[in-house]
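Hey, can you fold this?
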Amino acid sequence: MRPSLVPIRREGELIKLLTTCVDPESWSGKGGKATIAYHSGCMTLAVHATPAHQERIATVLAGLRRQLETEVAVEMRIITVSEAFCNEPASS
């Protein structure tokens, strides 16, 4: 049985990524005017910034979405058996 999938809340990491990668000096925390906030009730990211700034943020978010689409999960199991087990005839 598969465990239920619980969404991982990583809004803090996303905000840090955006404020670090997209015009870092323009954010209010660095003396600029742009602001960013996550609203958990409706799971939205609110960004108050210039249109050019918004476009750069949209580009970063689109890149992140593309990465998620191509993510691959690999599961591997290694089983060790004795040599005697391998030499036993198969039972029907």
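Oh, and this one too while you're at it.
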Amino acid sequence: MEEAILLTEPTEPSDAARLDRAIAFFGVTARRMSLAEFLAARDSDDSAPKFRVFSKGSTFLELLGALGKEGEGSGFWQKRIHSVFVYASGDFSALEKAVATIAGQECLLAETDPAAE
């Protein structure tokens, strides 16, 4: 069975609970990990399945910064990451910064209100 990693912070239990339910709907189990735990686990068994990561924008931005400082970023992404799903969680500017960091240039994301549509 596939497993997802929910990068969480101690202050966001409601976000993680909603993600747990959404991921479970698709038959995927999820394990919650802090950013520190995730960074420590990245050096585990190379034969382990690749990570499917779910993270809010600010946490993902921290991950990008941590990997960039160590100069190991590109190899880690290729060897250990299957996919990454990043969401705003009320901090749209952090999501924009994460996308800009990945794209290597400024970007402008459109924030919409689903209730208004």
